């Protein structure tokens, strides 16, 4: 093996997943290029489009590996033991091919964990062969995610945890996402990690009224004319909207954009549609809101839904608004929940599921009235990045309560916490009473979210916490 050389001016970011759905690793790559002046190679799977800032940067080069083929569920059950062995072996060989032969030798490998198998062994071996440093960015613990499907008592989970700990300790340095995770790594794993909180990058910011109007004009068909759906957002009896380039939320009048007083309250939730996010809580809360508002208003259940919806989209004012939930994201349980939504028959709540381009997602967050986070964390030690993005856009959040969420969400300052669907329904009633003008508590939370989002940004946090660590590791690895 050749002797170590001087600095190569390169870094490699490794993600055994869809790089387009790994925002933190995209931000790492951008910061390595912009702030550390390194050439950056990304080795990951394709699938979703990455942010344009990454694609357009001349010093960032993306290498997309081939995905493991999708196996039908019935066949997967039969072949599960075989797949558990073969899949990581093929992934290991593919990673080694890219890390050792396809890319130029880097000064440092920065790898996302989880998944741990076979990523950590592949990167450790590649770092040894190529005389490079090896840093792990701990987002969560892989064995806890595996335990969601196999159970904590599974021998596979026990083996996975040993593997994750053993190879985790071989890294030259570690980053992690919370103080709680830092403590766990130090006390029970013997790993010293530096906390780098997720922070919003510069493209997550409050949205102007003009930006909101243009966004909702682009999304108008998806919002008001979804295939096969009739609900409180689909019937719009406003001639101005057709004549003057309007949408569900605003209208253009004499070259001025005006927010509509009868617009629905917009709530956004981003989900990966996986078992660690119980979307059923949100559906139950929506149903409770729907029924409780009807009871508060002493509404006649015999009134036809179409009549009620036309009143809502007209000039009639209600103490509680219609709610429109836009759910973004991709994942395995999406279709199951979409079928559940269709069966709910809600009168004043509507749902839309969609996948937005990377440039439109911040605009949507900045245009919403409230964010909802259902993330519970398989380990109880990580924080939802989606909430960080929401705060960056000045969007207050209602989030599921778990052990370390208060490192991010400050109750009654930038958001609220809930532990059940009933608590979430109570919070929706509390925050949206008098919407859009007389909901003072929601306005206070928005101010708090704006303050949180503007107080720290990714590039500043990376400069202070990650850059010194990465440069120190590189310098120690150079002869």
Work out the radius of gyration. 24 Å
Q: Would you tell me the overall average pLDDT? A: 89
Estimated share of beta-strand residues: 15-25%
User: Got a strand count?
Assistant: 15
Structural class: alpha/beta
User: How are the strands of the biggest sheet laid out side by side?
Assistant: 3-2-1-4-5-6-7
Ends: how far apart? 15 Å
Number of helices: 17
Please state the overall shape, judged from the principal axes of the Cα atoms: globular
Q: Oligomeric state of the chains?
A: single chain
Description:
- There is one protein chain.
- The chain has 479 residues and is of the alpha/beta class.
- The protein is 44% helix and 16% strand.
- The protein contains 17 helices and 15 strands.
- α7 (179-189) links the parallel β6 (173-176) and β7.
- α5 (142-150) packs antiparallel against α6 (155-168) and α10 packs across α15 (421-432).
- The longest helix is centred in the first third of the chain and has 30 residues, at 73-102.
Topology of this structure?
Layout: E1 10-18, H1 23-34, E2 39-45, H2 52-56, E3 60-65, H3 73-102, E4 108-113, H4 119-129, E5 133-138, H5 142-150, H6 155-168, E6 173-176, H7 179-189, E7 194-195, H8 209-224, H9 239-243, E8 250-253, E9 256-259, E10 265-270, H10 280-296, H11 305-312, E11 323-328, H12 334-342, E12 349-354, H13 360-367, E13 370-373, H14 385-392, E14 397-400, E15 415-418, H15 421-432, H16 440-455, H17 458-477
Parallel strand pairs: 1-2, 1-4, 2-3, 4-5, 5-6, 6-7, 10-11, 10-13, 11-12, 13-14, 14-15
Antiparallel strand pairs: 8-9
Helix pairs in contact: 1-17, 3-4, 5-6, 8-13, 10-15, 14-16
């Amino acid at each position: 093996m050749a002797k170590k050389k001087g600095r190569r001016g390169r870094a490699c970011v490794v993600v055994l997943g869809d790089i387009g759905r790994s925002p933190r690793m995209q931000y790492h790559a951008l910061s390595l290029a912009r702030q550390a002046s390194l050439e950056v190679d990304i080795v990951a799977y394709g699938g979703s489009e990455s942010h344009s800032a990454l694609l357009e940067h001349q010093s960032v080069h993306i290498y997309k590996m081939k995905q493991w083929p999708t196996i039908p569920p019935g066949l997967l059950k039969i072949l599960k033991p075989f797949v558990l062995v073969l899949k990581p072996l093929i992934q290991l060989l593919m990673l080694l091919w890219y890390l050792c032969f396809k890319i130029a030798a880097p000064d440092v490998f920065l790898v996302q964990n989880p998944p741990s198998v076979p990523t950590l062994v592949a990167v450790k071996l590649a770092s040894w062969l190529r005389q490079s440093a090896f840093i792990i960015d701990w987002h969560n613990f892989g064995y806890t995610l595996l335990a969601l499907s196999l159970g904590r008592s599974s021998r596979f989970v026990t083996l996975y945890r040993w593997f994750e700990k053993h190879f985790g300790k071989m890294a030259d340095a570690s980053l992690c996402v919370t103080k709680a995770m830092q403590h766990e790594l130090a006390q029970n794993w013997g790993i010293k990690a530096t906390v780098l909180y997720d922070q919003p990058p510069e493209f997550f910011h409050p949205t102007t009224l003009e930006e909101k109007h243009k966004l909702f004009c682009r999304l108008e068909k998806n919002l008001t004319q979804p295939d096969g759906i009739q609900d409180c957002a689909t019937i719009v009896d406003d001639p101005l909207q057709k004549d003057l380039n309007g949408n569900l939320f605003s209208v253009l009048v004499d070259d001025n954009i005006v927010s509509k007083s009868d617009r629905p309250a917009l709530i956004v939730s981003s989900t990966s549609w996986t078992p660690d996010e119980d979307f059923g809580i949100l559906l139950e809360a929506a149903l409770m809101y729907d029924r409780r508002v009807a009871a508060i208003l002493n509404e006649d259940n015999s009134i036809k839904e179409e009549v009620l919806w036309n009143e809502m989209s007209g000039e009639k004012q209600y103490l509680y608004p219609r709610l429109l939930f836009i759910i973004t994201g991709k994942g395995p349980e999406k279709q199951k929940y979409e079928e559940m939504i269709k069966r709910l028959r809600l009168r004043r709540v509507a749902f839309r599921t969609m996948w937005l381009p990377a440039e439109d997602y911040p605009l949507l967050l900045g245009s919403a009235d409230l964010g909802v986070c259902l993330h519970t964390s398989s380990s109880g030690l990580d924080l939802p990045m989606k909430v960080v993005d929401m705060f960056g856009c000045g969007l207050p959040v209602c989030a599921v309560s778990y052990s370390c969420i208060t490192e991010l969400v400050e109750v009654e300052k930038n958001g609220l916490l809930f532990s059940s669907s009933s608590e979430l329904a109570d919070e929706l009633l509390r925050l949206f009473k008098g919407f859009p003008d007389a909901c003072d508590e929601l306005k206070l939370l928005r101010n708090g979210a704006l303050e949180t989002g503007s107080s720290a940004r990714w590039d500043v946090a990376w400069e202070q916490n990650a850059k010194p660590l990465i440069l120190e590791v590189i310098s120690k690895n150079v002869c």
